[in-house]
TrEMBL record:
This is Integral membrane bound transporter domain-containing protein. Its main location: membrane. The chain crosses the membrane at residues 20-36, 69-87, 136-159, 194-223, 235-254, 283-300, 312-329. The lineage of its organism: Bacteria, Thermotogati, Deinococcota, Deinococci, Deinococcales. The keyword Methyltransferase does not apply. It is found in: Membrane. It comes from Deinococcus maricopensis (strain DSM 21211 / LMG 22137 / NRRL B-23946 / LB-34). The keyword Transmembrane helix applies. GO terms for cellular component: membrane. Residues 202-323 form the Integral membrane bound transporter domain.
Length: 338
């Protein structure tokens, strides 16, 4: 029963509605603008660049601006890399190798630069999703949309930090992530590299499902937790939360929503996901799963049941791979502590 309660228990709130609203707004305006221009094919570039707003969500102005600007550069670099992979038709096995490099390098850079959330999940997600596009948009247009969306998110971050300091100057900010020792950084990078490589290999073998990015992301997702127990818990939460989210998604996607209504749902789900992600990862995934599926449908409509099956199979397989990596790739110190 204790484990069941952990899946439902919410951690104390940290005024999460403020960053959740800011992040949702950072997604909403670019998508609405692209919808008005009838360029829904460009939403993928805006959406991944808008992930900039997720970083440094509770940090004060100076460090938030620095870390969000850094994350914007990294995310845009990942978009450019993903565009090049799509343009060169790299293939599923080449994509697995690219995901592994992105994951390892991204995780080490994020740790070295003090980015929070830690890990390389968003970097890998951007690279693999854009690289999987059958026909990417012209490079200048794609990157222009990405730069504009990232700049908007950074601006919202600055305004949000200033608002927080005025309304609650004594607010306690979350502590920055602990600096990893060199040996810990090595294990950190190795776990991320191997998880993405094996997740990419699984995606190549599951190519019939057509959404390989989800297997890679699910494999990488547990790795960013701070300790072994946290990584195992995160992997299990990924599976349980996604399965419950698929049920919610099936109900939501059964309705033939107009594009504007899909955008409204995406923004709402983004807000709810960010509202709960720091408090309970399983609950957040109830909203992350339909969010990912709706964003996929908005940019490239496809069959609903195939989409649900792909999300289920690839997430379960990817998360199982991540759990395997977490269990096998441990330092001697981590083995002694279990």
């Amino acid at each position: 029963m204790r484990y069941v309660r952990e899946f439902l228990q919410l951690a104390p709130a940290q005024r999460d509605h403020l960053p959740a609203g800011r992040i949702a707004l950072g997604v909403a305006l670019p998508l609405l603008l692209l919808l008005s221009l009838n360029r829904l094919d460009l939403t993928i570039y805006a959406s991944f660049a808008a992930f900039t707003g997720i970083y440094a969500r509770h940090e004060p102005l100076s460090s938030r601006f620095r870390h969000q600007l850094t994350s914007a550069v990294l995310l845009l670099t990942c978009e450019a890399f993903g565009w090049w992979l799509a343009a060169t038709h790299i293939g599923p096995w080449g994509l697995a190798l690219a995901a592994a490099v992105t994951s390892g390098v991204g995780a080490v850079l994020a740790a070295a630069l003090g980015l929070r959330p830690a890990g390389s999940l968003f970097f890998v997600f951007a690279v693999t999703s854009i690289a999987s596009l059958p026909k990417p948009a012209p490079f200048g247009l794609a990157m222009g949309v990405g730069v504009a969306a990232a700049a908007f998110s950074v601006t919202l971050g600055v305004l949000g930090a200033r608002f927080s300091e005025r309304t609650r100057p004594d607010e306690l900010h979350l502590p920055p992530p602990n600096s990893l020792r060199e040996v810990e950084l090595t294990w950190h990078g190795l776990r991320h590299t191997l998880a993405a490589l094996l997740g990419g290999a699984a995606a190549a073998l599951l190519a019939a499902f057509g959404h390989g990015a989800w297997a890679v992301v699910a494999a990488v997702a547990p790795i960013s937790a701070q300790d072994h127990q946290g990584r195992v818990k995160r992997g299990i939460q990924r599976i349980v939360g996604t399965l419950l989210g698929v049920v919610f998604s099936a109900v939501l996607l059964a309705v033939p929503w107009q594009p504007w209504a899909q955008v409204v749902w995406i923004v709402t789900l983004q807000f709810l996901a960010e509202l709960f992600v720091a408090r309970n990862y399983s609950v957040a995934l109830l909203f992350v799963t339909p969010l990912a599926l709706l964003m996929t449908q908005l940019a490239h409509p496809s069959g609903t049941w195939g989409l649900l099956a792909s999300r289920t199979v690839e997430t379960v397989v990817g998360a199982a791979i991540g759990l395997g990596v977490v269990w096998v790739v441990r330092s001697a110190e981590e083995r002694r502590s279990v």
